[in-house]
Design a protein that fits this description.
alpha/beta, TIM Barrel, 8-stranded parallel beta barrel, 4-stranded antiparallel beta sheet, 9 helices, 13 strands
C-alpha cells in the first residue's frame, strides 16, 4: 500500500509552499500531487513554478502528478490546463471534465480526482477507455459503494484502475463560483486581496451556538473535523485499496506521514489521530462510528 501527499488545498506564501515540498522529499510518501485545485487567482506559484517544482521532486524518485482546478470558469483557466497537460512529463489529476477531454485528446494518462463524481462502474469504465489509470473516490463515497464498483468490474471481466482513498485531512465538501472567504470578510471577490493567505488551514466557521462546524477555504467549503481512516486500514487492505491520500496541513504533517507509514506495515490498526470517519461507514461525515 502506497502513500500519497494530496494537492495543497490552502493558499500559502510562496516560500512556505516551496519549503514544505522540499521537506516532503525526505518523507516516506510515494506520490506527490502538485498544483492549484481551488482558485485560479492564487498565484504565489504560477504554472512555470509548479512545473519546475515537479521536476525537482521527480528527481527524488517519487511519482509526481499535476493536479488541476476543480472548477473551470474562464478561457484563461483552460489555457493553464492545456499547458499542464501539454507538458507531457507527468500524470494529470483531472478534477474537472475539461481536463479529461484534453487528456483524451493528447493521449495523456490521468487520475480521476474526487470532484469528478463517478458513481457507477460504467462511467469508470468509460474513463478507463479515455486514459484513466487511477481513481480517487469522492469524499462521501465509502466502503459500500467502492466495494460494489469493484465487484461490477470483476463481473464485467475488466481490470480495475488503481484505487486511492482519502485517508487523512479536512474533506472538501463543495466548490462554488462564489468566494466564501471574501464574503465572510465583506470584500468583493474580484478585490479579495488574497485574504485566504491569512488562514493556512482555512477560516473556521461556527454555528450560532458557537460549535465548530466548517472551514471556509476560498470558493471551497470543508468539514471542520480531520478525517482519519487509519483505524480502517485492515478493511482498506481487504478492499484492495492501493494508495492512501493524506491532505497537507499547516503544522505537523511529517508526523502524520510517518504515522501512516508505520501503520501500513503494522499487523494492527493504528491509534486514531483524527476526529471523524463517518462517510466511510455510510453515515454523516461528522460522526465517529466505532471501528
Amino acid at each position: 500500500m502506497k502513500l500519497s501527499l494530496g494537492p495543497l488545498q490552502y493558499f500559502w506564501p510562496r516560500e512556505r509552499t516551496l519549503a514544505f515540498y522540499r521537506e516532503a522529499i525526505h518523507w516516506p510518501v510515494d506520490i506527490v500531487y502538485l498544483g492549484e485545485t481551488v482558485c485560479s487567482k492564487r498565484r504565489e506559484l504560477r504554472t512555470a513554478d509548479w512545473l519546475a517544482l515537479a521536476e525537482e521532486l521527480a528527481a527524488s524518485g517519487k511519482q509526481i502528478v499535476l493536479s488541476t482546478l476543480a472548477l473551470i470558469e474562464a478561457e484563461s483557466e483552460l489555457s493553464v490546463l492545456d499547458r499542464q497537460i501539454s507538458h507531457g512529463g507527468f500524470w494529470i489529476e483531472a478534477n474537472d471534465l475539461s481536463a479529461v477531454q484534453l487528456c483524451r485528446e493528447k493521449g495523456r494518462p490521468f487520475v480521476a480526482g474526487p470532484t469528478l463524481n463517478v458513481y457507477n462502474h460504467r462511467a469508470l469504465e468509460m474513463l478507463v477507455e479515455d486514459g484513466l489509470r487511477r481513481w480517487v473516490p469522492g469524499v462521501e463515497q465509502g466502503r459500500t459503494l467502492i466495494g460494489e464498483l469493484k465487484e461490477a468490474f470483476i463481473a464485467d471481466g475488466a481490470a480495475m484502475p488503481e484505487l486511492e482513498v482519502i485517508a487523512w485531512g479536512r474533506l472538501p465538501l463543495s466548490f462554488s463560483a462564489r468566494c466564501f472567504t471574501a464574503r465572510a470578510l465583506d470584500v468583493p471577490k474580484d478585490q479579495c486581496g488574497f485574504r485566504c493567505i491569512d488562514y493556512p488551514d482555512g477560516l473556521p466557521l461556527a454555528t450560532r451556538e458557537g460549535r465548530p462546524f466548517l472551514r471556509i477555504n476560498g470558493i471551497s467549503v470543508q468539514g471542520e473535523e480531520i478525517t482519519d481512516l487509519g483505524p480502517e486500514l485492515p478493511e482498506l487492505r481487504a478492499l484492495g485499496v492501493d494508495i492512501l491520500r493524506l491532505y497537507p496541513q499547516a503544522e505537523g504533517m511529517e508526523a502524520v506521514v510517518r504515522h501512516f507509514d508505520a501503520a501500513r506495515t503494522a499487523s494492527e490498526a493504528p491509534v486514531q489521530l483524527g476526529e471523524r470517519n463517518g462517510y466511510w461507514h455510510g453515515e454523516p461525515g461528522m460522526r465517529m462510528p466505532a471501528v
